[in-house]
Amino acid sequence: MKNRSLLSINDFSLDEQLKILTLAAEFEKNPTQKILEGFVVATLFFEPSTRTKLSFENAASRLGAKVIGFSSLATSSVTKGESLKDTILTVSNYADIIVIRHPNDGSARFAAEISPIPVINAGDGANQHPTQTLLDMYSILKTQGRLDNLNITFVGDLKYGRTVHSLTIALTQFNTTFHLVSPVELKLPSYVKRHIKEKQLSYFQYTDLLDGIPQADIIYMTRIQRERFSDPIEYEKVKNAYNLNNSMLINTKENMRILHPLPRVNEIALDVDNNPKAYYFQQALNGVFVRQALLAAILGVK
Ligand code: CP
């Protein structure tokens, strides 16, 4: 993985993905080790972020790397009209690796094509979010003890949800049965379903959340994303489509855990937070260890 970019989950082989999970477990046991002293990590966030940006920065600083970057368009020279190409070529003079989040699909791949240093996609539009996928896989492995033969229920914005797209593609490597709960307008795109079909796996589509709950080993909730809708009326129609609450969880499997990439709006009721099956805040912590593993592997120290 040394010096390679991570733009979509398929950029790493299954063996490489599993190596990242093994390394993450090592970092979880021993998170502060100065193995990246002398390295500089650039975090270029053209779109808002709490978890991805801060967990990358936390991961880098725990490993001794310096962090530079910006967290909005307003604090970069893009507001003066600078192109993404010029931004990437400039920043690559100052850093050893670039972590980029951008609202346009394909922007991370474009950045990697012109960058002389590796690029990590921290979310490009509605396309992919591969580092979230690796931390989701790590969270599933930790809570279920395996990645194979699981029933995974995805809920919410499956059309624009980049975390859902990347994780679905990753889980086709593990004989997963997919349960897809969404409003009709927000179904999983055909290109993602094609990955499921190519592996001859099963998927079931529902609009009622209750239909996706009893069989689930993992319920993966997602937010209906206001920012992805060009028509606000369309957003208003679906924004309150789902609200998972404790009463819906009574007859769920003992091993079932609730994941959510976060941020949450109203799709998980606050009463669920104290349910032992809620795992989304631990999931966010797992992001630090997985991102430590990624930085160490790509910068060639592990
Ligand atoms: N999961 C995730 O990408 O969260 P942020 O938008 O806060 O980075």
Secondary-structure blueprint of this entry?
Elements: H1 14-29, E1 40-45, H2 51-62, E2 66-70, H3 84-91, E3 97-102, H4 107-114, E4 119-124, H5 130-144, E5 151-155, H6 162-171, E6 177-181, H7 190-198, E7 203-206, E8 218-221, H8 232-238, E9 257-259, H9 280-298
Parallel strand pairs: 1-2, 1-3, 3-4, 5-6, 5-8, 6-7, 8-9
Task: Describe this protein's structure.
The longest helix is centred in the C-terminal third of the chain and has 19 residues, at 280-298. With 302 residues, the chain is an alpha/beta fold. Strands 7-6-5-8-9 form a five-stranded parallel sheet, with helices on one face. It has a four-stranded parallel sheet with strand order 2-1-3-4, with helices on both faces. The N and C termini lie close together (9 Å). The chain is globular and about 55 Å long. Helices cover 34% and strands 15% of the residues. The chain binds phosphoric acid mono(formamide)ester.
Overall outline: globular
What small molecules does the structure contain? Answer: phosphoric acid mono(formamide)ester
CATH architecture of the largest domain: 3-Layer(aba) Sandwich
Structural class: alpha/beta
What fold name goes in the CATH topology slot of the largest domain? Rossmann fold
Task: Pick out the low-confidence regions.
Answer: none
Corresponding CATH superfamily of the largest domain:
Aspartate/ornithine carbamoyltransferase
Main sheet summary: 5 strands, parallel
Can you list the strand order of the major beta sheet?
7-6-5-8-9
Strand element count: 9
Q: What pattern of helices and strands is seen along the backbone?
A: HEHEHEHEHEHEHEEHEH
Helix content: 25-40%
Quote the average pLDDT: 96
Report the span from N to C terminus.
Answer: 9 Å
Radius of gyration: 19 Å
Compute the number of helices. 9
The domain count comes to 2
Regarding quaternary structure, how should these chains be classified? single chain
Task: Estimate the strand proportion.
Answer: 5-15%
CATH class of the largest domain: Alpha Beta
